[in-house]
Amino acid sequence: VCACVCVRGGPPLCARALFRRVMEKLHKEPGDYTKDSSSFTLELQKFHESRGSPFRHAPRINGREVDLFALYNSVTAIGGWQKVNDLLKWDYILDKLNFPKACANASLALRQVYVRYLSLFEKVHFLGEDADEEADPGTESRSGRKSTGAALVQVPMSYNKAQHDIPESQRLVLGLAPCAGPSPEYNKLCMSLLSGLPNEETLTLNVCTLLSNEGRHSLKLDRMPRLVDLLLSQAGLFPADDPTLRPMLLESWQGVEGRRMERFWEDNLDPETIALYNIGRGSKDEEDELFNLNYEVGTRSIEGQRVLRIALIFHNLSFEERNAVILSKNRTFIRFVMLSALSRWSTLRQVALDTIGNLAAKLVLYPALDEDEDEASSGHHCYEDLAGERQRWSCSLLRLTREGIQSQDRYLVVRCLDILARLCRQERNAEPLLAALDTPLCRRVFELLTVHDLMLLIYALEALYMLSELGRDACERMLLVHRSMGILVSLLTLDPLVYGPLAQKGMKLIETIDPLLPPPQVPAATNNPAATPTSLPMSAPLTPSMVSTGGNPVAMNAPGTAAGMTGTTGPGPGVGPPAA
């Protein structure tokens, strides 16, 4: 019995004639087959584009591209995908396309590919039916078969996120919570850090490193303050207000290389700092005691490089004013930066000192009260915890600043002078700074003024100027230093070029002229050489100008200014008038 099939655009064909036509297509020459395959692919793409479901690339099974033209001809040769599905002929189609038998569930994948890409095309061009027509279950189509395609759910073109949205009216009826707003910015970064997966954590650190650099899309911590705590947890320091974060991450880090963060802090801090900040695992690993392993810091330490990367991220973010406000109020971050500044690793210590210098103007030292302690003063235990923690890092910071100024390390002296000057800008720090300001410290700062180094000179002058702003007590203590006034007066006639090029390390001399002062007037020359003045008139105050003496320009500074000296390295402070 030959069943007649109506082909769209042509007369009805019997099944035998249709089978003969399909087999002729399958046994064409290679060149003709390639041409027909390309034409079929273009026609299929146009068909899907007209229906709003375009595709760019052909599907793949087990890494091998599926020949849609051969698949369509093989299925239609049997009578369509429903016929193949009823007769369980997908394995036969799989062999016909020369797919390996070892591919698991290949027949199921092949059927899904056909349904996704070719089922509607077959319905229109092979069966001659309407693609948008939905047949009722049990009804017969034009081909004489019962329609069972409605029972098969086709693969959607895109994920329908609207299925999760519930209207507010239904939420009220069902007693659900109000509809949540859009997810906050950087929420995916927080989720990756909470996942505990090593690859997700590494990717997030890389993204934060890029976002911490200056640019249009720099990281803004005020939009997601919790990101600070999650980044610090990657360095082994956990916030006290989240007791679940520490055990969760420690459990996920078990067996992962480079996650022994507590060991890093123990081996890089002195015992006094470890006891002060309550850092320690409580017990040492048996392997360390058995083999007497020494912990190496630097490029060979995975934990050290991880902590250094996090420190660099916060160092870059501290230059932004909006980020500095968030960082200075985070207690866990202050603890992290102080531990880094007290560590034995010089690279980490340098990054931490630079970060403290950027935030020093916003830090409130103990025993002054900051905003958080003013709000927590009603709760006695909470206030004691905040005050005790701030007392620890305040004492550590003052001791670190004092030791740095009195050290012989040029970088350490300059950075600690900068930190001291910026701490003086916070009005609440007057009392703790006056308690730490004694005669040896003042004498050391005045001694730095006599060193032939312009950078030390500028930072020491700035520190003295900011200390003089603390009031009468600070000025009297500076006056107790022997010949302190003479040193300051001698700086009024300082010629920076006399120090030579070695004293200008990290500095650059540029000429500055005060636009408010009139230029000096030189009397007109006379015929009498003896009457020609050899210097500028002293009736008006001297302005910084360039006076030629034998062809070499020399910078002359006006009294009470430090013009002509400008730093070019690091975020150095501005130069103010010297203390009276």
Automatic annotation (TrEMBL):
One of its GO terms (biological process) is chromatin organization. It holds the Pfam family ARID. GO terms for molecular function: DNA binding. Keywords: Chromatin regulator, Nucleus, Transcription, Transcription regulation. Residues 34-126 form the ARID domain. It comes from the Eukaryota. Residues 557-580 are annotated as: Disordered. SMART domains: ARID, BRIGHT. The keyword ATP-binding does not apply. It comes from Rhipicephalus appendiculatus. This is AT-rich interactive domain-containing protein 2.
